[in-house]
Specification:
Layout lengths: L1 H21 L9 E11 L4 E8 L5 E8 L8 E8 L2 E9 L1 H4 L10 E8 L12 E7 L5 E6 L9 H16 L6 H19 L4 H13 L7 H9 L6 H7 L3 H20 L2
Parallel strand pairs: 1-7
Antiparallel strand pairs: 1-4, 2-3, 2-5, 5-6, 7-8
């Protein structure tokens, strides 16, 4: 009798552990994800201060920690359980450039909220090695991703900014401002590149930001519009095509910006 009870208890423990490992609830049809670490990946042009995930059953998970644009890997919160296929995500962001104007004033934070639908997903990794990554995009939508490591972000704003500083420093920073200010300027323009054309490739964003600094209306030029149309959904192709842009077209884009500035000045 005692042996039978021990076997039943062991079977129950094994069943519950198997349920956790496969993402299934032993007593419900709703998927359950246990032992989760949470990581946020910020692609907005603002600093992400905190975020909270809730499910329909009252479970909560959160993270944050003043993530700069493009940052996130290496920032973890642990350990959580979430259940279901629909989750509410609330987060706070703020404009660091505005906050830096008065270090003693309260930070004016923007509060965001969205619903994320996640189909039942089998997760991998042992307890403590399961990471739920939240990817925050410039249009305020959030994507969930189960992972077992903290590999890099999907959009490398820092690589875009570094390339511009090394190759077009005066164009990016004509007034000799601090590195943090200059980085945020590049990140805002790169975020615009994602919003307009869904660029995530580093080379695509480098060329987009460079030409935007050169001429904010560069993408209205017929040759550029043709390149955008032909390279859609081909990561890296836009950047390569813009690097190979004929010198005459590049010069026309520069002249066009100069003409626009002169026109604005005459109407000033």
């Amino acid at each position: 009798m005692v042996k039978t009870r021990i076997k039943v208890r062991l079977a129950g423990i094994v069943f519950l552990m198997t349920s956790l490992l496969t993402g299934c609830d032993a007593f419900s049809s709703e998927p359950t994800y246990g032992g989760l670490s949470i990581a946020g990946f910020n692609y907005t042009p603002y600093n992400l201060s905190r975020f909270v995930i809730t499910d329909k059953y009252g479970n909560r998970a959160g993270g944050g920690g003043d993530l700069m644009p493009g940052s996130g890997q290496g920032s973890l919160s642990c350990c959580y359980t979430l259940k279901g296929t629909e989750f509410t995500v609330k987060w706070e962001v703020y404009d660091a450039d505005i906050a830096m104007r008065n270090l003693y004033a309260p930070i004016d934070k923007m509060h965001k909220e969205t619903i994320v639908h996640l189909p039942a997903t089998k997760i991998e990794g042992d307890l403590g090695m399961r990471v739920l990554g939240l990817h925050f995009y410039p249009d305020d939508h959030v994507e969930f991703e189960f992972r077992t490591d903290l590999r890099g972000t999907r959009i490398e704003y820092s690589a875009v900014s570094h390339w511009l500083r090394m190759n077009h420093g005066t164009l990016l920073n004509p007034k000799g401002e601090r590195d943090a200010v200059v980085f945020r300027r590049a990140a805002r323009l790169a975020a615009d590149g994602w919003l307009k054309y869904r660029f995530t490739d580093t080379k695509d964003l480098q060329q987009y930001v460079y030409y935007t600094l050169l001429n904010p209306k560069f993408d209205e030029h017929p040759a550029v519009r043709k390149i955008i149309a032909e390279t859609r959904e081909k990561p890296g192709a836009f950047g390569s095509a813009m690097e190979a842009l004929p010198a005459s077209t590049a010069e026309a884009l520069k002249r066009g910006n100069a003409a626009n500035k002169k026109k604005r000045a005459s109407h000033g």
